Amino acid sequence: MKSVFVLKFRNDNYSLERGILMFVDNVKITVRSGKGGDGAVAFRHEKYVPLGGPSGGDGGRGGDIILKANEGMNTLMDFRYKRIFKAEAGQNGQIKGMYGHKADPVYIKVPTGTSVYDEATGRLIGDLVENNQELVVAKGGDGGRGNIHFANSKNQAPEVAENGEPGQEKMIKLELKLIADVGLVGFPSVGKSTLLSVATSAKPKIAAYHFTTLSPNLGMVRLDDGRDFVIADLPGLIEGASNGVGLGIQFLRHVERTRVILHLVDMDPNNGRDPYEDYLAIRNELGNYDENVLKRPEVIVPTKLDIPGSEERMAEFKEKLPDDADIFPISSIQHTGVKALMNHTSEVLSKAEPIHFDVQTDETKEYNYEPEAKAFTIEKEADHDFVVKGAKVELLLQRTNLDHQDGIMRFARQLKSMGIEDALIDAGAESGDSVTILDFTFEFI
């Protein structure tokens, strides 16, 4: 295991690992939306309104948790230091029929290209691929109704109000997949970082050993005619990367969003490797990860043509490729062919199909028939103790104001209408037995 020491700056935006800016593209965070405000039980007591009646207002809606894409960010580094995000609860209802204030939403900035997954189920919640795009990951609870809503001809002064709906809490996984027009792929030390440094103003680390690049680097290519595109230097892949070998598995996801692939192949005759075998190996890893990547336009870029003997090796390499292969040899050290390659890449990019993100969100509905799940279950824990469980009945309890007798009686009627009373009798419950729902226990009569 490599030794690591981390220096944290006070602004918590960056961290240094042996002097290198850390790139974070995979984090888990917890989000908690706000509870809805409780409805109020109140009555008008005004001098000239002798029969004022109920006047309890509704509670305000709890705050949402919303992710917002920001193209100015390119890492999830900030979430290493803050992993829990909470929204405020809505204000309770007021007297004179006044509504409580709804809570403000909590916005969380994430880089464009962030995919959001539910950690518990693994389901994709949404994909933020455009600047300022928003995604609600936890909805605030609805406010409870005040007693102004429960007056009728039989009960003109009801002491009944609803509690606010609980907020949602979930753990979500954020995965950053860099959005670049062009991706540089190839074995370690084939010259990807050197090409990026020559073609753009980016300053990636360059050295004469493998795995110099430990995180993706982005650069903007600007051509003389005004055209431009974003190019990404992805850390070196090796054989078996799609199965977790080397560093590749950490960064293969970033290839998904590139529209054109520049496949760099080393022509150095002294490196002891076969260029064609290297080419096939990288293609195999890309296909194992996502076969759609192999359908994207590919420009094969033989590199290091400044080394003696490289021309002969490239001739042998080209003979093994299909006749329609798109080949552009370069020497980044001497800048030979780099400008022509960038112009050609721009032309290929202009003809490439845009990438369509097939995202299934919460709003997507599938009309497949499924038997309705049971609304509740009853468990007998002891001779005279029963526990009622179920999302619907538990939510009903949470939204019931039990501080007033009218509210308790309404809750009892709702339990009966759901069939819980009959189910308890069928389960063997008798008068005087204890029935528990969440943390609320009552006597069965």
Automatic annotation (TrEMBL):
Sequence ranges assigned to domain OCT in this UniProt record: 368-445
InterPro entries reported in the protein's UniProt record: G_OBG (IPR031167), GTP-bd (IPR006073), GTP-bd_Obg/CgtA (IPR014100), GTP-bd_prot_GTP1/OBG_C_sf (IPR036346), GTP1-OBG_CS (IPR006074), GTP1_OBG_dom (IPR006169), GTP1_OBG_dom_sf (IPR036726), OBG_GTPase (IPR045086)
Subcellular location, principal: cytoplasm
Annotated positions binding Mg(2+): 193, 213
Domain Obg: 21-179
EC number: 3.6.5.-
SUPFAM superfamilies attached to this UniProt entry: Obg GTP-binding protein C-terminal domain, Obg GTP-binding protein N-terminal domain, P-loop containing nucleoside triphosphate hydrolases
GO biological processes: ribosome biogenesis
Gene Ontology MF annotations: GTP binding; GTPase activity; magnesium ion binding
Keyword terms, alphabetized: Cytoplasm, GTP-binding, Hydrolase, Magnesium, Metal-binding, Nucleotide-binding
Cellular component terms (Gene Ontology): cytoplasm
Summary of the function given for this chain in its UniProt record: An essential GTPase which binds GTP, GDP and possibly (p)ppGpp with moderate affinity, with high nucleotide exchange rates and a fairly low GTP hydrolysis rate. Plays a role in control of the cell cycle, stress response, ribosome biogenesis and in those bacteria that undergo differentiation, in morphogenesis control.
Subunit organization: Monomer.
Family affiliation: Belongs to the TRAFAC class OBG-HflX-like GTPase superfamily. OBG GTPase family.
Protein name in the entry: GTPase Obg
Organism phylogeny: Bacteria, Bacillati, Bacillota, Bacilli, Lactobacillales
